[in-house]
Write a structure and sequence with these properties.
The protein has 383 residues and is of the alpha/beta class. 35% of the residues lie in helices and 17% in strands. The protein contains 16 helices and 13 strands. Strand 6 (209-214) and strand 7 (217-222) form a beta hairpin. The two termini are 31 Å apart.
């Protein structure tokens, strides 16, 4: 719910009391991961297994627009935080749920983890080099995707509530999110029976689109349309490829991808000779540095969007700033939500706080807390 918090929603994070910070996968409450995930959120600790803690939750639910939960199906019903249990308290309430494997089915009661979902969904079978092992994506793609899909569902439910005056239950899962993300590869399988494989750093259905060797590293580029392909060949002095029937169309270039890669990377330089060979064959090396590739492509009628340079990231990135000397000695910046509105909202960012009670939320001047072993229950939710 970080996106909704960034956009101005009042988000209250409810966690169990005790050593909650240690249990959080993001680590300590003031760690970079925790501050990044829980920014702009308020916090409260509740023992929902205690009737008094549940009464506090009901007080919050009575005036809330949305309750978001990620419990397993059996746990949410046992704690009575499912939609049917909360609807009588607030008929306008929208309950939004994220699970690992959905709300029904044989795996509904199992916990889900991004690592497992990446493999089960098939994503890892599509990631990596063709003759290599399955590879996970470098980020928690199922976690973040499911969160964004649920955020969209919440917004749809809020719009629907304006029409009907009633809340509803919205839910998604990590596995459903990843199945949706399979997109074109999934469509080719379900419609044409094509089993997609791993293509490494190259696009499965377009060429040239991928990573190519330079003398000082690699260059990531794409030139797939007819015009882009012509400009690409002229820019790199590869005009002879335009007359080669093996590369006359995108389909032909994909079918002969490795040959095309070899031609693009085969840059001969007269100043480099293979001194160990008796022949006068020139040493085949990727001559140009990566900056030379970029300069050639950006100056040869190619639009800037077709060759993205690091300065573009500096222009596009939206930063939110935090100034909290009690935690960090210097002002922090973090990446903001990647959506822009004509009228910007919530330009003031709030760091994540240590978990605790929020008297103002409960409309009382003081909330007393009592400790019972590892649990903390809040007494007297209002005066």
């Amino acid at each position: 719910m970080r996106l909704l918090a960034d956009w101005g929603a009042e988000v209250i994070r409810v966690e169990p009391p005790g050593e909650s910070d240690a249990q959080d996968v993001t680590g300590h409450w003031n760690s970079p991961d925790s501050q990044n995930l829980h920014r702009n959120k308020k916090g409260i600790t509740l023992n929902l297994k205690d009737p008094r803690g549940y009464e506090v939750l009901k007080t919050l639910v009575a005036t809330a627009d949305v309750l978001v939960e990620n419990f397993k199906t059996d746990v949410k019903h046992r704690l009575k935080i499912d939609y049917e249990s909360l609807k009588p308290i607030n008929p306008r309430l929208i309950v939004a749920s994220i699970s690992g494997f959905g709300q029904t089915g044989p795996y509904a009661t199992r916990p889900g983890f991004d690592q497992i979902i990446q493999g089960m969904s098939g994503l890892m079978s599509l990631t990596g080099v063709p003759d290599g092992e399955p590879m996970r994506a470098g980020i928690a793609v199922s976690d973040t995707s499911a969160g964004m899909f649920l955020g969209q569902g919440i917004l749809l439910a809020l719009i629907e509530r304006e029409r009907t005056g009633q809340g509803q239950w919205v839910h998604t899962s990590l596995l459903e999110a990843m199945l949706s993300k399979l997109d074109f590869q999934a469509a080719r399988y379900t419609m044409a029976g094509e089993v997609p494989g791993r293509e490494g750093n190259h696009h499965p259905t377009a060429a040239p689109m991928g990573v190519f060797k330079a003398s000082d590293g690699h260059v990531n580029l794409a030139a797939t349309t007819g015009r882009m392909w012509r400009d690409f060949c002229h820019a790199l002095g590869l005009e002879h490829l335009l007359d080669d029937s093996r590369f006359s169309s995108n389909g032909q270039r994909v079918a002969n991808r490795q040959l095309l890669i070899n031609e693009i990377e085969k840059r001969r330089c007269s100043s480099h000779r293979n001194l160990s060979s008796k022949s006068s064959m020139r040493l085949v090396v990727p001559v140009d540095r990566s900056t030379q590739w970029v300069r050639r492509l950006t100056t040869h009628r190619l639009r800037r969007s077709e060759c993205v340079c690091p300065p573009t990231i500096q222009c596009l990135a939206r930063w939110i700033w935090f100034d909290r000397p009690s935690i960090y000695p210097i002002t922090q910046r973090r990446i903001a939500a990647p959506v822009r509105c004509l009228v910007e909202v919530n330009t003031q960012a709030m760091s994540s706080n240590r978990l605790g009670c929020l008297p103002k939320i409960l409309n009382c001047s003081k909330v007393k807390a009592s400790f019972d072993g590892m649990y903390c229950v809040l007494e007297r939710p209002f005066l």
